[in-house]
Amino acid sequence: MKIVAALDTCEGLGMCEAMAPDFFEVGDDGVVEVLDDSPGEEHRTDLAAAVDACPVLALTLQG
Ligand code: SF4
């Protein structure tokens, strides 16, 4: 599984960080940073919730 963040779409709203702080952090530049873009399967439920929470659909899970 891979997390893909469309950095040109992200508006730094921080919903993903609130849902899964181990994997997402909004930097001082107001754009999300993916802290671990190849997480283990055990994180799929949390990450799917974080991806769904992004208001501008900037996040996708692949695989
Ligand atoms: S929820 Fe979406 S817009 Fe907000 S920081 Fe995360 S990726 Fe960016």
Describe the structure in your own words:
The protein has helices at 15-19, 44-53, and strands at residues 2-5, 24-26, 32-34, 59-62. Helices cover 24% and strands 22% of the residues. The longest helix has 10 residues, at 44-53. The model has no long low-confidence stretch (mean pLDDT 97). It is built from two helices and four strands; from the N terminus they run E-H-E-E-H-E. The protein is α+β, with helices and mostly antiparallel strands. The protein has one domain (2-62): 2-Layer Sandwich (Alpha-Beta Plaits), CATH 3.30.70.20. The strands form two sheets. It has a two-stranded antiparallel sheet. The chain has a two-stranded antiparallel ribbon with strand order 2-3. The protein binds iron/sulfur cluster (SF4). Residues 5, 10-16, 24, 26, 32, 54, 56, 58-59 line the site of iron/sulfur cluster (SF4). Residues 5, 10-16, 24, 26, 32, 54, 56, 58-59 line the site of iron/sulfur cluster.
Strand order of the largest sheet: 1-4
**Spans of at least 5 consecutive residues with low confidence:** none
Along the chain, the helix and strand elements come as EHEEHE
Q: Measured on Cα atoms, how large is the radius of gyration?
A: 10 Å
CATH topology value: Alpha-Beta Plaits
Key terms:
63 residues; alpha+beta; Alpha-Beta Plaits; two-stranded antiparallel sheet; 2 helices; 24% helix; globular; binds iron/sulfur cluster
Give a short synopsis of this structure:
By secondary structure, the protein is α+β, with helices and mostly antiparallel strands. It has helices at 15-19, 44-53, and strands at 2-5, 24-26, 32-34, 59-62. It has one domain (2-62): Alpha-Beta Plaits, CATH 3.30.70.20.
